[in-house]
Design goal:
Layout: H1 2-10, H2 13-54
C-alpha cells in the first residue's frame, strides 16, 4: 500500500492535464476579450462612416439637379 501511495503521489499525468485546461481557458478568455474589442470598434467605425456618407451631397439628392 505504501508503494502505491508513493507512486500515485509522483505521477504527474493529471497535473499536465490541469495545466492544459488552464492554458486553454486563458486562450479562450483572451479571444473573447479581443472579439468584444474588435466588435465595439467596428460598430463605431461603421456608424461614423454611415454618418459621413449621409452628409455628402452628390448633386442628385434634396434639390440638386445634377449636371
Amino acid at each position: 500500500m505504501t508503494r502505491f501511495l508513493t507512486k500515485f503521489r509522483k505521477d504527474e499525468d493529471g497535473a499536465v492535464t490541469v495545466d492544459w485546461v488552464v492554458l486553454t481557458a486563458a486562450v479562450v478568455g483572451l479571444a473573447i476579450a479581443a472579439w468584444t474589442t474588435i466588435e465595439t470598434a467596428s460598430v463605431g467605425l461603421t456608424t461614423a462612416a454611415g454618418t459621413a456618407v449621409t452628409g455628402q451631397n452628390d448633386g442628385f439628392g434634396a434639390g440638386g439637379g445634377g449636371a
